[in-house]
Design a protein that fits this description.
It is a single chain. The chain contains ten helices and nine strands. With 246 residues, it is an alpha/beta fold. The chain has one domain. The strands form two sheets. It has a seven-stranded parallel sheet, with helices on both faces. The protein has a two-stranded antiparallel ribbon with strand order 2-3. Helix 1 packs parallel to helix 6. It is globular and about 45 Å long. The chain starts with 9 loop residues before the first helix and ends in a 25-residue tail after the last helix. The model has no long low-confidence stretch (mean pLDDT 93).
């Protein structure tokens, strides 16, 4: 199980997910940081990689789909929320209460990054390299040839993917139905659209693994609109051991 308050531990939770990956146990991890939270709270946002306009009816439908993914419950479904050390206690409390997940299914949105990122590179990336069944969703500008693993299938996404690539939800379901066995590993690098995919595909078939891995492959893919501090060498972010608030 995930570590629990009052002894919830940033590294222990990552080790929990690493063990699941090693054992090829199906699970989903959908993480929600400040951008996703702003959308759920109906605040306009444009961070160059995705954007949301509260006055746009189509954006509102996408926002509701994001909220549904945040509140979805399943034995294999885990939700990551912003921590008080990075986004403040008020935001942490609001997200913790709003998602309505129990302590066995809630973790850090930053679980892959900050001081956990080197562990991710050392322990989790090699697990990707052992597999020939990875289905990758990432920016079409990305250089996937730089990856140390070869995806079984690749869905190229655009900026603001949840507007421009919504059809991938049904296309991914069709792909899942065509596979000769369960247990494939889906990696999502596509902002809030990754959360929605995590939810929709888990509902469709919970016997695969669906991971929202955010920007963790950016140094290899080289497609980011802006760089993240946690992978830019020794700095306050790469050393940050995130804390819990409950």
């Amino acid at each position: 199980m995930l570590s629990k308050p009052p002894n919830k531990n940033f590294r222990s939770d990552l080790e929990f997910f690493t063990t699941k990956l090693k054992n090829r146990e199906p699970f989903t991890l959908s993480k929600y940081a400040d951008g996703e939270w702003a959308v759920m709270m109906n605040h306009a946002i444009n961070n160059k990689e995705f954007w949301f306009n509260p006055l746009n009816q189509n954006d509102q439908r996408r926002r509701l789909a994001l909220v549904d993914s945040f509140k979805f419950k399943h034995d294999n479904y885990y939700v990551g929320i912003s921590c008080p050390c990075c986004q403040g206690m008020a935001t942490f409390d609001q997200m913790y209460n709003y998602c309505d997940q129990d302590d066995d299914h809630i973790t850090w949105a930053n679980i892959w990054v900050n001081s956990n990122y080197q562990y991710y590179l050392d322990k989790i990336m090699p697990l990707y390299c052992e597999r020939n069944d990875i289905i990758l969703f990432c920016n079409r500008k990305a250089n996937i040839d730089n990856l140390p693993f070869k995806p079984y299938a690749y869905f190229p996404i655009d900026n603001n993917a949840w507007e421009k690539n919504w059809n991938y939800i049904e296309e991914a379901k069709l792909l899942i139905d065509s596979l000769d066995h369960d247990g494939y590993l889906f990696l999502f690098c596509c902002g809030p659209f990754g959360n929605i995919l995590c939810h929709q595909l888990t509902k469709h078939n919970p016997d695969n693994t669906y991971l929202d891995i955010g920007s963790t492959l950016n140094p290899l893919l080289q497609s980011e609109e802006f760089q993240r501090h946690y992978y830019m060498g020794d700095n306050i972010y790469s050393r940050q051991v995130c804390t819990w608030g409950k």
